[in-house]
Specification:
This protein has 229 residues and is mainly alpha-helical. The chain has two domains: 1-110, no CATH class; 113-229, no CATH class. It is built from eleven helices and six strands. The chain has helices spanning 2-9, 15-25, 41-50, 70-82, 106-109, 113-119, 136-140, 158-174, 176-190, 193-205, 217-227; strands at residues 31-37, 54-57, 85-91, 128-130, 149-150, 155-157. A three-stranded antiparallel beta sheet has the order 1-3-2, sandwiched between helices. A three-stranded antiparallel beta sheet has the order 4-6-5. β5 (149-150) and β6 (155-157) form a beta hairpin. α2 (15-25) packs across α9 and α8 crosses α9 (176-190). The longest helix has 17 residues, at 158-174. Residues 60-71 have low confidence and may be disordered. Zinc ion is lined by residues 112, 114-115, 126, 146-147, 157, 159-160. Zinc ion (ZN) is lined by residues 112, 114-115, 126, 146-147, 157, 159-160.
C-alpha cells in the first residue's frame, strides 16, 4: 500500500509513532499524538491527511485535550515551546469534537478503563491473565502502563494483553517491516527482564510487593529505615 510506504519513509517519527498512526487510521485506536521538530511538521501533516485522519497542533490552536490537572496542561505547553517541537494530536472523525472531552485523555488514546482508573489512583479492579510465556510482543505494541503486571508470576492486566495482541496483529498484517521495527525499538527495555523478575521475587519475599500488584508502602518505609540504619 502506497500510503504505508510513505509513512515508513518518514525519518521524523519513531516506529512506534508510525504504528500508532496506522492503528488509528485502521480504526482500532481512537487517537494518538507525537511531537516533531518544526521542519518536519508539513510532511507529517501530509501523511495524516493521506490516512484521512483529523489533527490539531499545539501551536496557534493551543492544547486541545482537556487534561485533568492544569499542571499537565502547562507541562505539555512548556514542552512544546521549550524544545521547539510541535505536539500534534490526531484522531478519527468520531473524535473531531474532542475539545469538549471533560474526561481523562486516556479515553482519547483508547487505554483500557481499568488502567485509566489505576492511573487516577483507584484501587485495582481489572481482570488479570496468567501466561506461560513473557508477553514482550504484546507489551511492545501498547501505549499505556498496564494497571497490573508481574513478570515473575507472568500475570498481567488482561485487557492490556488483548489490546497488545490486537495492535500487534494489525501492524503485522499491514506491514511486516513496521512490525519488526517496533520490536527492534522496544528491544532495549526488555533486555533485563530476568533481572526484573529477580527483583520482583525479592520484593515479594520482603512483603513489599503484594500479590495484588500493589506496593506495600508501610513495609517499604520500614525496610528503607532499617537499611539506612
Ligand atoms: Zn488494566
Amino acid at each position: 500500500m502506497v500510503i504505508i510506504e510513505d509513512l515508513l519513509k518518514l525519518v521524523s517519527l519513531t516506529p512506534k509513532d508510525k504504528a500508532n498512526i496506522l492503528l488509528t487510521a485502521k480504526g482500532v485506536k481512537p487517537g494518538g499524538d507525537f511531537s516533531v521538530r518544526e521542519k518536519a511538521v508539513s510532511e507529517v501533516k501530509n501523511i495524516l491527511s493521506e490516512f484521512n485522519l483529523h489533527f490539531r497542533d499545539s501551536r496557534g490552536n493551543g492544547i486541545l485535550i482537556k487534561f485533568p490537572e492544569d499542571i499537565n496542561r502547562a507541562k505539555v505547553k512548556e514542552f512544546a515551546t521549550e524544545s521547539n517541537a510541535y505536539y500534534i494530536f490526531y484522531f478519527t472523525k468520531e473524535f473531531s469534537n474532542f475539545e469538549l472531552l471533560d474526561e481523562n485523555p486516556g479515553k482519547f488514546y483508547g487505554y483500557p478503563e481499568c488502567c485509566i482508573r489505576k492511573f487516577e489512583g483507584d484501587a485495582y479492579e481489572g481482570e488479570t491473565i496468567t501466561l506461560n510465556y513473557d508477553p514482550i510482543e504484546e507489551l511492545s505494541f501498547i501505549y499505556h502502563a498496564p494497571c497490573f503486571q508481574n513478570f515473575s508470576r507472568r500475570k498481567f492486566c488482561m485487557k492490556s494483553i488483548l489490546l497488545g495482541r490486537l495492535y500487534r496483529d494489525v501492524v503485522k498484517s499491514e506491514s511486516k517491516a513496521l512490525y519488526h521495527a517496533v520490536l527492534e525499538e522496544e528491544k532495549e527495555q526488555w533486555k533485563n527482564i530476568n533481572e526484573l523478575k529477580k527483583l520482583e521475587r525479592k520484593l515479594e519475599k520482603a512483603g513489599i510487593l503484594e500479590e495484588s500488584g500493589f506496593i506495600n508502602f508501610k513495609r517499604l518505609k520500614k525496610t528503607i529505615s532499617v537499611s539506612l540504619g
